[in-house]
Each structure stands twice: as structure tokens, then as C-alpha cells.
């Protein structure tokens, strides 16, 4: 049974117990929850790049040649004495902000506001759950010797998690638009080293953890949505605007 509730701009409430299933196809595709979509299935190929980044970062903690690369890069940066700017505090979130801005401007991504908010929020939680404890376990000293919370780079992890989020949302709409978020992520990672806050290995590992976190968030989304929607697996919910008899409103469609 499909149950519809319409809330009009004039306060009208109407209900209809059945609806032709073909009409549902006219609604935005990204508003329909696809629990078994290929996009939501675990694809091990998507973990190759983040695993390689993380492996390099971990190796840089112990392998002398990679440690030497960390030191030589820091020495080269200090020799040129670049200005320390704090834009990296903001560019880490830029790709995610762009996703919401583009959707608001009418350039639709893969998911609607609710769904992408759940995905991005999950990604940020996973990123924090990985990077924060690791900093306290590894206790690597920062290049500027301000503390021992250098590995991995949290700013870079968030930046690449945000960039991967933008890529997943827009790669099918426009591939170039989808990858544009990585420019902000790379900028963030570079400036974490230029600002003398992280070693190269910290930044590379942070990028890996960020990409991994977003991929896990997309995989976990159907399960999280199931918990939020209720225990009945046959229940699905859609929220969409409607126009009828010169009145606007919001429609709630529940299929059970």
C-alpha cells in the first residue's frame, strides 16, 4: 500500500490510500532510496588508492629513506620561508560547501539534501574516529615541535573526505566538476606542510584516511537509512514538493 499525505501552502491536508505506481517514476530519482544500488555496494577497487596512501604514511614512520624525505622536504620549505597562511582551515570544507551550493543553484547531484547530509555526516564521524585516536597513539612530533599530534593530518583527511564526497555526488553529472574538489584538498595538504604543521607522510596518510572514510560512508548509508526509516524493510519514504489547484505544498509518500 502507498500512503500519501499532502500539506499545502494554505494549510490543506489531503490523504489518498492508493496511487498508480507508474506515477512514482515522475519523481526525482535521487529522492528514491536505492538500498540495493551498485553505488551502495562494497567495491574493493575503490579502496586501492586510499590503502596505498595510508600504507605510505605508515611506512614513513619507520623506513629511514621515507623519513629522510620528510626531513629534506621540511628543510627545503624552511629555506624558502613561505608565508604561513591559514586558508587550509577553510579549504578543507570547500568541496562539501560546493556540493550544497551547486544543488541550491539547481545543479543536482546524486542524492537529495537529506541523503547527502547523512552520508557526509557519517564520513566526518568516521574521519574523526580514525584520525583523532591515531594522533594520540602514534605521538609523532610536528615539524614545528608544537606538540606530538602530527600523524595523520586531520585537516588533509577532512579535505579529501570532502573532495571524495563531491566526486561521488557529481561524477555522473560532470566528471570535471566531480574532480574539481580535489584541487582544494591538494591545496590543503600542501599548506599543512608549508605551514610547518605536518610531514609529507602525515599528509599522504591523511588523504588516504579521508577517501576511505567517504567510501565507507556511502557503503554504510543504506544500513543507516534503514535504521532511521524503521524496521520494516518494505517501507520507503519520499518527500517532494507539489503544485495543485494554484497552491504549493510538500508531499510525503510512504510505501508499505
Automatic annotation (TrEMBL):
Q: Which SMART domains match?
A: acidPPc
Q: Which residues form the signal peptide?
A: none
Phosphatidic acid phosphatase type 2/haloperoxidase domain location is: 117-218
Q: Which domain of life is it from?
A: Bacteria
Q: Which UniProt keywords apply?
A: Membrane, Transmembrane, Transmembrane helix
What stretches pass through the bilayer? 174-191, 203-221
Query: One matching Pfam family, short form?
Result: PAP2
Recorded hits in InterPro entries, A to Z, give: PAP2/HPO, PAP2/HPO_sf
Q: Protein name, please?
A: Phosphatase PAP2 family protein
- Species annotation: Chryseobacterium edaphi
Amino acid at each position: 500500500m502507498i500512503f500519501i499525505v499532502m500539506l499545502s501552502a494554505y494549510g490543506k491536508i489531503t490523504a489518498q490510500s492508493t496511487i498508480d505506481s507508474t506515477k512514482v517514476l515522475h519523481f526525482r530519482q535521487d529522492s528514491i532510496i536505492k538500498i540495493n544500488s551498485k553505488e551502495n555496494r562494497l567495491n574493493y577497487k575503490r579502496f586501492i588508492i586510499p590503502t596505498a596512501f595510508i600504507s605510505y604514511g605508515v611506512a614513513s614512520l619507520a623506513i629511514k629513506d621515507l623519513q629522510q624525505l620528510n626531513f629534506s622536504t621540511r628543510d627545503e620549505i624552511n629555506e624558502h620561508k613561505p608565508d604561513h597562511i591559514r586558508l587550509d582551515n577553510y579549504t578543507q570544507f570547500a568541496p562539501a560547501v560546493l556540493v550544497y551550493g551547486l544543488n541550491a543553484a539547481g545543479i543536482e547531484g546524486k542524492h537529495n539534501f537529506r541523503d547527502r547530509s547523512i552520508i557526509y555526516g557519517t564520513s566526518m564521524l568516521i574521519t574523526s574516529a580514525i584520525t583523532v585516536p591515531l594522533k594520540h597513539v602514534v605521538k609523532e612530533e610536528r615539524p614545528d615541535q608544537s606538540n606530538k599530534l602530527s600523524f595523520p593530518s586531520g585537516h588533509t583527511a577532512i579535505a579529501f573526505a570532502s573532495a571524495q564526497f563531491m566526486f561521488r555526488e557529481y561524477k555522473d553529472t560532470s566528471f570535471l566538476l566531480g574532480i574539481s574538489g580535489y584541487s582544494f584538498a591538494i591545496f590543503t595538504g600542501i599548506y599543512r606542510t608549508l605551514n610547518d604543521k605536518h610531514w609529507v607522510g602525515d599528509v599522504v596518510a591523511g588523504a588516504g584516511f579521508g577517501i576511505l572514510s567517504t567510501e565507507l560512508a556511502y557503503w554504510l548509508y543504506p544500513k543507516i537509512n534503514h535504521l532511521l526509516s524503521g524496521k520494516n524493510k518494505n517501507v520507503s519514504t519520499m518527500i517532494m514538493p507539489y503544485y495543485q489547484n494554484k497552491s504549493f505544498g510538500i508531499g510525503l509518500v510512504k510505501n508499505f
